[in-house]
Amino acid sequence: MGHWPVAPLNTFLTPFHLWTSHMGRKLEFNFEEAIEQATGLFWSKGYTKASLRDLLKVMQIGESSFYHSFKDKEGLYLECLRHYNQKVMFPRLETLQSEDSIKSGVRKMFQQVLASNRADPSRPGCFMTNSLERDVMEMPRIKKYVLEEMALLENYLTERIESAMRTGEIDSGIASQDLAELVMTFYQGMLQRPGLPKNDGSRKNLIELFLERMGF
Length: 216
Hints:
Structural class: mainly alpha
Largest sheet: none
CATH class: Mainly Alpha
Order of helices and strands: HHHHHHHHHHHH
Number of helices: 12
CATH topology: Tetracycline Repressor, domain 2
Radius of gyration: 19 Å
Strand content: under 5%
Shape: elongated
CATH superfamily: Tetracycline Repressor, domain 2
CATH architecture: Orthogonal Bundle
Distance between the termini: 17 Å
Helix content: 55-70%
């Protein structure tokens, strides 16, 4: 099926175990735990409302360690995005990649979104999708990273749809790129508004209705 290789996504990551040598000195705090806590704060309060004081408190680090490790708040946010991709987004993409049927893969990807919303209601939606907010997208490094990551998924989805159209698995009458954009738009909408519709059954029905209309 010409499945999309996962490797390109990993080029955006700095593995946690490499940070001590990367930063030039041994870290005096648990890097992964600190990033996890910062991600939760950014997720719940947003970039602008998450103050440096609040971040230092939840990360349990001092200002010296913060500036040495992340340089600034934007640098920390970028590492939180990379952490989120490694922990949440990559498994979803691997699920899509692992299915020979694009119809099955897309449905499983949406199922994972519903499952994650049930598992942790305190972190609704998608941290990556939330980063499309204006205050975040005004920062060049973050804007570049977010758009590149989203383009990877959309491009892969387009390729899989084209392959499915050639085999006759999908026959929607919509161009492959347009169809991929529609699926991604609906996907991001479900991530941004996880409480609509209000119950899980209705959300599943809405997803199924959309996919059937799109030829999935």
